[in-house]
């Protein structure tokens, strides 16, 4: 029987979403607490419908009859794999090639020229795309590098692409995208650095791009094994899903990993908070450089 949103269990919990499965405020709190503990993502109760729609598919696949049973599975040791699947299902992966193009204009005109000179002289260049989703951001960075240094893969230039979602990491490593997805890439650039597939219905990144980008699973609220220093860090539209205190902690962890005068690019609706606010100076729209006070 389909219950109304006001249906209450004997214990007093309230059903939040009307649908195939009973989904109460207690279920939502348990799922929200797990996601917060595992990924730092804060889910307000206004997201209940989104949580229900994304996880109802998992209940069907697992043959479960209620979210209460699903939460019980997630809490068991044997449910660790499903907990990872749940986190991937609830993680937003909105991305596109050359999203927020002013960042790539800044990278190309103000940051990369000196880095290219260093690389040509035998120096090391490192860039990090933190929260890379399915690879469109790090490959956009790679294309920007290749526009100034076509042989970058033959030098010590590397881009680290990290994401918490293993499915996104796998897609990035695969490096193939539909024709409509690569539309923001100028056709002449596409033809030089990508290979058409399926009669032009999709495109695969070239070997030079693959050599530049390394994909890794990484939880931004977990342990960071990288030592740095990075010359550039992109972390855009990722920490917005964290609570303010968690956001501040993540921002503060970037400064020690950035080289002197290194660049940090953040999302259009994000702002540096906490100790990081004094460690960086503004260098453009949601663009920052590590200041003297931010040097490790």
**Which regions contain 5 or more consecutive residues with pLDDT less than 50?**
1-7
- Fraction in helix: 25-40%
Strand order in the largest sheet: 6-2-1-7-8-10-9
* Shape by Cα distribution: globular
Rg over alpha carbons: 22 Å
CATH architecture annotation of the largest domain: 3-Layer(aba) Sandwich
CATH topology group of the largest domain? Rossmann fold
Per CATH, the class of the largest domain reads Alpha Beta
Largest sheet, if any?
7 strands, mixed
Key terms:
seven-stranded mixed β-sheet; disordered N terminus; 10 helices; 39% helix; Rossmann fold; alpha/beta; three-stranded antiparallel β-sheet; 296 residues
Give an overview in words:
The protein has 296 residues and is of the alpha/beta class. It has two domains: 66 residues, Chemotaxis Receptor Methyltransferase Cher, domain 1, CATH 1.10.155; 194 residues, Vaccinia Virus protein VP39 (Rossmann fold). It contains ten helices and ten strands. A seven-stranded mixed β-sheet has the order 6-2-1-7-8-10-9. Strands 3-5-4 form a three-stranded antiparallel β-sheet. Strand 1, helix 6 and strand 2 form a beta-alpha-beta unit. The longest helix is centred in the middle third of the chain and has 20 residues. The N terminus is likely disordered.
């Amino acid at each position: 029987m389909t219950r109304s949103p006001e249906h209450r269990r004997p214990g007093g919990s309230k059903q939040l979403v009307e649908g195939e499965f009973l989904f109460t405020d207690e279920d939502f709190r348990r799922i929200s607490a797990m996601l917060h503990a595992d990924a730092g993502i804060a889910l307000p109760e206004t997201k209940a419908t989104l949580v229900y729609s994304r996880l109802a598919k998992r209940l069907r696949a697992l043959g479960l009859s209620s979210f209460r049973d699903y939460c019980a599975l997630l809490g068991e040791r044997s449910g660790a794999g499903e907990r990872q699947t749940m986190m991937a299902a609830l993680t937003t992966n909105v991305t596109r090639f050359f999203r927020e193009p002013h960042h790539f204009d800044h990278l190309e005109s103000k940051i990369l020229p000196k880095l290219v000179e260093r690389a040509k002289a035998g120096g090391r260049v490192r860039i990090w795309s933190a929260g890379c989703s399915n690879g469109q951001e790090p490959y956009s960075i790679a294309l920007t590098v290749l526009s100034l240094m076509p042989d970058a893969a033959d030098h010590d230039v590397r881009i680290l692409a990290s994401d918490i979602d293993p499915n996104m990491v796998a897609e990035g490593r695969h490096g193939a995208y539909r024709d409509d997805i690569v539309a923001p890439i100028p056709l002449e650039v596409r033809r030089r650095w990508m290979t058409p597939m399926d009669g032009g219905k999709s495109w695969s990144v070239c070997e030079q791009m693959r050599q530049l980008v390394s994909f890794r699973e990484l939880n931004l609220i977990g342990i960071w094994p990288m030592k740095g220093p990075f010359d550039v860090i992109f972390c855009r539209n990722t920490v917005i899903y964290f609570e303010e205190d968690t956001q501040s902690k993540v921002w503060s962890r970037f400064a020690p990993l950035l080289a002197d005068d290194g660049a940090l690019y953040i999302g259009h609706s994000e702002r540096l908070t906490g100790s990081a606010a004094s460690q960086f100076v503004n260098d453009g729209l949601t663009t920052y450089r590590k200041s003297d006070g931010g040097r490790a």
